[in-house]
Design brief:
By secondary structure, this protein is of the alpha+beta class. It has a single domain, classed as K homology (KH) domain (GMP Synthetase, Chain A, domain 3). Strands 1-2-3 form a three-stranded mixed β-sheet. Helix 1 packs antiparallel against helix 3.
């Protein structure tokens, strides 16, 4: 039985759990070969909650997403647009 990870659902769950306005969260996915990029858009008041102090939260999100992507042999990158 092969394992797969739904990286889009994982990222949506992580980000919506952090913000005050989960309805305003928009995640865009771009694919190039085995590389996947996600761009997160949130309400301007919630940007700091996603980034965290000195970028600790977004670094942790990127680490989790890279680990989830490695299950599918994909490289995953996450950016916050604001």
């Amino acid at each position: 039985m092969a394992r797969t990870a739904d990286t889009a659902a994982l990222l949506e769950y992580l980000v919506t759990s952090l913000v005050d306005d989960p309805e305003s969260v928009k995640i865009e996915r771009t694919e190039t070969g085995s590389s996947i990029g996600y761009e997160i858009s949130v309400h301007p008041d919630d940007v700091g909650k996603v980034i965290g102090r000195q970028g600790r939260i977004i670094k942790a999100i990127r680490t989790v997403m890279r680990a989830a992507g490695s299950v599918n042999d994909e490289q995953v990158d996450v950016d916050v647009l604001g």
